[in-house]
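Bit of a strange request maybe. I'm writing a small parser for structure token strings and I need a real example to test against, not something I typed by hand. Could someone generate the tokens for this chain?
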Amino acid sequence: MRGMKPLCLSLFALGLPAEALPPAASLLPLPRPELETLAVSTAAERRVPSVHAVQRSLRPMLRGAVPQGFAERRAASTRPAETADPGFRRWIAGFRGRALARGIRPEVFDTAFDGVQLQSRVVERDRNQAEFSRTLWDYLDGAVSDARVRNGRAALAEHRDTLERIERRYRVEAEVVAAIWGLESAYGASRGSTDIVSAMATLAYDGRRQDFFEAQLIAALQILQSGDVSPRRMTGSWAGAMGHTQFMPTSYLEHAQDFNGDGRRDIWSDDPTDALASTAAYLAHFGWTYGQPWGVEVRLPQGFDYALTGERVRRDAGFWRRAGVTLADGGQVPDHGEASILLPGGSEGVALMIFDNFRVIERYNPADAYVIGVGHLSDRITGGSAFRAGWPRGDRALTGDERRELQQRLTAAGFPTDGVDGIIGPNTTEAVRRFQRSVGATPDGYASLRLLERLR
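Reply from user aminoacidic:
Good idea to test on real output. This should exercise your parser:
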């Protein structure tokens, strides 16, 4: 579903791996986690520049914690734990035949699986994806915190030459690439130290999403066969995302770049060059428009028609100007082609005018919270101001059960949502709007606890 995505920070409730959404030529480099911030140890202990040592990665989708540590000096500690399991050994033997049939050389397979054992903690994390709801403003407090902005500016300055060359090559702004880096791994400080072959084999053997993880495991073996990385240096999150900007193996195969020219597409090393270039290449592939903002904060006039809000409604700048929409500071809205108005916090929160580049960032991660986080962080890194409008901070996020109850009650009241799935997409938003109109409330489509209580 498109439109305002829920701030439930797990997509496993859909019955699909979040890594596979939305459909695309390649799978998204998006499966990890970390919503909390964490002070990490000194730069010397992490072997990263001092600007990196502040916060962990920040994702609006909970996948379980990304283990700390990375790089070659941690390689020994990432070797899979010895957990005997005869069934797993039989599965590996069977999978070996399937891998060789896909072109994996026997010696590559055998080296990759040397010492690999079933990872019980990975299975536990996959099976216990607790649904976690968080408001957008709480998420942004961490995603665009003062520390993350400060570290982003330092990282941008430190890697300016590299990022400028990447910008010239791929026509994606340096600050956007830096913002994704900041949210994915806190500028390289939290890349994950889980052995990818072991984790993908464990999840494929577990069987709940066997086809998906077998595909990721085949891709991981193809990466190893290409010589870009050795098996035990191929580390990342327990769900398979790797490197500074957290690519899944399938996304790596399609979009990873050897930008420093050393013959390897190395997204794992302390040098972030290839990972940053790979992220720019990914965005460029999906249609990034150089010079176009992801979005801008706007002010809506009194009496604005809230039926015009939402990603489905796209109008040119002239239309919005005639409708009385201005920039938050009162200036004229820019003309960057057709744009939509989003109200992620309802009429009491920030109003955003979003452009096509918003939808390109969605290809990296489809959650609105993530896209707004990347966009706003990129603006702040380059000196932009914080949002001028406030948020309805007295509200809390609806739980999954509450979102489903909201859909059930809306449908029962004559405002069908076309399904009860806990996803506040465009159908539910429109149903909320129609209910709000029927009771004389501002029809902003905002699914709040107050609205649910009124339905009750």
